[in-house]
């Protein structure tokens, strides 16, 4: 049942219009997060004692978007994400999950109020400190935004990842400014309720869903007495709930700070019978810097 949390997708961003042909815009996203130790059960691994798993994670993403025509926008860039876990001795978990990928996509505005996106992230998705050719994967998204008004946008789409236990993950959301200072931003993977305190400061509360598929090293299973895990793929799922503040440092650059509880974490070796999940929450803190230029 908890795997239904994996119904996340990287949705197309609602926008009132595209820029003029010949222009280039830029998008920057980065964050660093620290999570305390969460009590973790190793029920499928009888020889391993339950213990606590802590986490550090970081993300960087940069996209350049040249405008081909008044209605077509290319998206070209790169992304990197890294998880580092503090593990109990002998825990049958990778201490690293990381990805390095290109970002290749296109936005198309059609029928006046619709914005469509297709975007692929070909790259390396590894459950170790290094990459090799076997780590290659090409997840991609298909998304659409219907711009009902400047205050209301509907979003739907799907993510396709053949390495995941759910190869096709559909999703839907809405962004609704229902009052002068309130925005209901129910778009995965970061649904929020936002309060616009001032032109430069926004307070919010909500959640975050992190999902991904990563390839284990060829000797990972053998080193833990489980040869069927050698070179296998593991699906990672994490669910957070918290609150924070977003401050517009400049008109184009935003700094965010938030904290809350990491409520759920799961490592699913879905081509085998093994699965590991936490049995208790843990506090987290995160700082983010992003911008559009």
Explain this structure to me?
With 293 residues, this protein is an all-beta fold. The protein has one domain (2-292). It contains one helix and 17 strands. The chain has one helix at 220-223, and strands at 24-41, 51-66, 72-86, 96-110, 114-120, 123-126, 136-137, 140-149, 152-160, 168-179, 182-186, 192-196, 201-215, 233-248, 253-269, 274-278, 282-292. It has a 17-stranded antiparallel sheet that branches. Strand 2 and strand 3 (72-86) form a beta hairpin. 32% of the residues are buried.
Write the layout of secondary structure elements.
Elements (H helix, E strand, L loop, with lengths): L23 E18 L9 E16 L5 E15 L9 E15 L3 E7 L2 E4 L9 E2 L2 E10 L2 E9 L7 E12 L2 E5 L5 E5 L4 E15 L4 H4 L9 E16 L4 E17 L4 E5 L3 E11 L1
Antiparallel strand pairs: 1-2, 1-16, 1-17, 2-3, 3-4, 4-5, 4-6, 5-8, 6-7, 8-9, 9-10, 10-11, 11-12, 12-13, 13-14, 14-15, 15-16, 15-17
Q: Which tags fit this structure?
A:
single chain, 293 residues, mainly beta, 1 helix, 1% helix, disordered N terminus
Average pLDDT: 90
Largest sheet: 17 strands, antiparallel
CA-CA gap between termini: 41 Å
Strand/helix succession: EEEEEEEEEEEEEHEEEE
What's the helical proportion of residues? under 10%
DSSP helical segment count: 1
* Beta-strand percent range: over 45%
Instruction: Report the C-alpha radius of gyration, rounded.
Output: 20 Å
Structural class comes to: mainly beta
- Uncertain regions: pLDDT < 50 for 5+ in a row? 1-17
How would the global form be characterised?
globular
Domain tally: 1
Number of strands: 17
């Amino acid at each position: 049942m908890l795997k239904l949390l994996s119904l996340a997708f990287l949705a197309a961003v609602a926008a009132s219009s595209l820029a003029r042909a010949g222009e280039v815009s830029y998008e920057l996203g980065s964050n660093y997060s620290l999570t305390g130790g969460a009590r973790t059960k190793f029920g499928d691994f009888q020889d391993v004692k339950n213990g606590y798993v802590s986490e550090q994670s970081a993300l960087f993403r940069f996209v350049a978007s040249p405008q081909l025509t008044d209605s077509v926008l290319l998206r070209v860039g790169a992304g990197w994400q890294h998880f580092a876990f503090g593990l109990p001795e002998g825990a049958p978990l990778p201490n690293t999950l990381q990805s390095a990928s290109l970002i290749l996509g296109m936005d198309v505005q059609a029928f006046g109020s619709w914005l469509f996106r297709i975007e692929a992230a070909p790259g390396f998705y590894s459950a170790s400190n290094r990459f090799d050719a076997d780590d290659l994967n090409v997840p991609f998204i298909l998304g659409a935004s219907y711009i009902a008004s400047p205050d209301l946008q509907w979003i739907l789409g799907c993510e396709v990842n053949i390495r995941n236990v759910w190869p096709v993950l559909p999703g839907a959301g809405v962004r609704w400014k229902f009052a002068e200072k309130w925005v209901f931003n129910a778009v995965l993977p970061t649904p929020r309720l936002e309060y616009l305190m001032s032109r430069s400061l926004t307070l919010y509360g909500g959640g975050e869903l992190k999902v991904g598929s990563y390839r284990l090293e060829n000797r990972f299973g053998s080193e833990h007495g489980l040869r069927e895990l050698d070179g296998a793929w593991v699906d990672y799922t994490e669910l957070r709930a918290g609150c924070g503040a977003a401050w517009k440092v400049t008109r184009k650059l935003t700094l965010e700070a938030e904290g809350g509880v990491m409520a759920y974490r799961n490592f699913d070796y879905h081509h085998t019978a093994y699965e590991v999940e936490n049995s208790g929450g843990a506090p987290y803190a995160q700082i983010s810097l992003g911008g559009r230029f």
